[in-house]
Design brief:
Keywords: Membrane, Transmembrane, Transmembrane helix. The protein has two helices and no strands. It is an all-alpha fold and 49 residues long.
Length: 49
């Protein structure tokens, strides 16, 4: 039971983490491109996709 729960929770955590990353990237893009770190980070994520 514990192994099955761990696998399901891991899957859910992965999906939730992915959604959070997308939401954060969209919010950062809306806030503005004043910081160079944010620009490079968002560009790396876009290249990864």
């Amino acid at each position: 039971m514990q192994i099955n729960l761990d696998k399901k929770s891991g899957l859910l955590l992965g999906i939730i983490a992915g959604l959070l990353v997308v939401i954060i990237v969209l919010l950062v893009d809306k806030v503005g491109d004043d910081d160079n770190f944010i620009e490079t980070h968002s560009s790396q994520i876009q290249i990864g996709n």
